[in-house]
Amino acid sequence: MRGLLWLLALAAMAVGVSLTARVNDGYLLLIVPPYRIEVALSLAIILFFLAFVLLFLVLRTIGLTLSLPSRFGGYRARRRREKATASLHEAIRLLFEGRFTQALKKAGEAHTLPGRIRAWQRCWQRERRMVCANPRKSRSGSVALTTRDLTLHG
């Protein structure tokens, strides 16, 4: 529906420009020493407008091209943080399921990724001490994590 409205507005604008250009009898006279150039005023206005749009698009393209390395770096950092968060959530899920060795492995992955997360330290150190001391002992339900533990600190 929005596209139809834009198309209708564009058609109305084209009709308005053509009606305005029909009643405009002016012309633009450019004198370049060996030449005299006479251009209809409506055509000159349209050419100036198109030149402005073209200049804007060229400058915008140059600006976006120059900002591309920083935007790509931000994208990569965001992906690393998302991977670290996913590893942490997987580690916590494994921890609550009682698979402590796999939880340790996932917490280690969250630690090695550059998006530093504070909760991995608590989970990893607590469970590493428990698994190393008694690998067969189950600790289901003894780990209480809060939403504050799950926050990302980068």
Quick summary:
By secondary structure, this protein is mostly helical. Helices cover 69% and strands 8% of the residues.
Describe the structure.
There is one protein chain. The chain is mainly α and 154 residues long. 69% of the residues lie in helices and 8% in strands. The protein has four helices and two strands; from the N terminus they run H-E-E-H-H-H. The chain has helices at residues 2-23, 41-97, 100-112, 119-133; strands at residues 27-32, 35-40. Helix 2 (41-97) packs antiparallel against helix 3 (100-112) and helix 2 runs parallel beside helix 4 (119-133). It is elongated and about 90 Å long.
The percent range for strand residues is: 5-15%
What is the overall shape?
elongated
How would a crystallographer describe the biggest sheet?
Answer: 2 strands, antiparallel
* Strands side by side in the biggest sheet: 1-2
Average pLDDT taken over every residue: 78
Secondary-structure element pattern, one letter each: HEEHHH
Number of helices: 4
The parts where pLDDT drops under 50 for at least 5 residues are 135-154
Share of residues in helices: 55-70%
Q: Structural class of the secondary elements?
A: mainly alpha
Radius of gyration over all CA atoms, rounded = 33 Å
Number of strands: 2
Termini, distance in Å? Answer: 43 Å
